[in-house]
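tool_log.txt
---
The assistant was asked to compare two proteins side by side. It first ran the structure predictor on the initial sequence, then on the second. Raw inputs and outputs are pasted verbatim so the downstream comparison step can read them without reformatting.
(1)
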Amino acid sequence: QVLNIGHLVPLSAYGLFTRGIATGANDFFALTAEQIASLALTASEVVPCITKSAQITSPIFEENDLKSLVSGGVPVFLLNINGIASNEARNYIAHGEELGFHRRYLTKCRKPWYKLEKRSPSPLLFGVFSRDGFKVIRNYTTALNLTCYHGFSPNIFGARYIDHLFLYFLSFAGRCILSQNMRKYGDSLDKFEPNDLNAALCPSMEWLEQLPRAEIDDEIAHLNQSGKLSERAESMFAKLTDNAHGM
């Protein structure tokens, strides 16, 4: 496939993907709302977090979707103790030590063992493993993510083009271009490492600037309703490949 190289730049021009939080003991750290209430943990000791890829089923993930998971008893909270733990949290930590969670491969290297990496919510999530097409999520929530997703942290330039990049990732042309950086394993299993994504090609700022913001917003609304890109959006990004001659 011929690429319109003059309009393509590495994704790293807009920011970086990094792997999700590695807890080393998801059974201990991932909690449901019911467990939090039962343990009497304070609101400051947990954060919302996507703990499994299957928890997100649509390209757009909003607060109402997160609330549905919470009310459905799904473990979408992460123990996140900063500062002095409450008595209740200390009791839970002691319980975790009784079960040997502090001796796991990752936890035993941390001091204290229950202290997790600091992360901010990522506006774009990218599935690590996939079959028959990779998973891209526009995250409008405050949820963090575990290693089932890579999270995108935009720089000052990328913050302006989050929705543009999201639509590009979903487009047929974008998938074809990004797949050149994909690692392929047996049984049709595909994988992206963060740096594979960061080195992948995407439209330049000059190219993206030619896409009216109103059209981007319309396309997001269409996607939210239908679950797929419109033909107009597909043809727009198709100009980056094959018979592309600019916009």
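(2)
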Amino acid sequence: WCLNQAGAGLAMLPGGSLHGIERLAAGDAAICALHVLDTETGEYNLPLVRQSLGSLGVVAVEWAWRDQGLVVADGNPRGIAAITDLPAVRVATRQAEAGSHILFEHLLAGAGLTASDLDVVGDPARSETELAMMVLEGKADAGLAVAAVAHQLKLGFVPLHRERCDLVMRRRDYFETPFQTLLAFTRTAAFAAHAIALGGYDISGLGTV
């Protein structure tokens, strides 16, 4: 939505955070959206950026903090209240390269669970919307995604975690017209209103380097 409204001349390439890092490093993408938890430090994104892109000369810019949790059917008919409830229901998952999958495995480990304890259904979803659609269509009972996608599809949501999503790019691209046009649009009332309407987003630090 934001790329279309901003008219910045940027197009979206699908894929998870780790796939995005690879494309940025290979020169196949100008900007990478990243939300990867470093489970050792509890820090978001920067440890991975330093490890994977340190030699490129990059800049990371805060995009938003987002509420992550379990997307469930409207009214939560299975009574899912915590990660420990998942072994009793059908679970949709994301692909291994997704930041949401890394967080999901971390939350499972914190509850003393692994993926082998779950009834995982279907192929890994390639996006959070695809995962939520599996719940909406009755193919799964729960899966980890952001609050906004649950709100959009009128599904239930069980909050579990707050994460930071950053945009990473080469320093030179930070100053180029496409990104600066995008950044300018994020300062408009229309952008702020849309973030509120989506739900589960905190954009108070957007643009922080």
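---
observation on (2): The radius of gyration is 17 Å. The longest strand covers residues 58-72.
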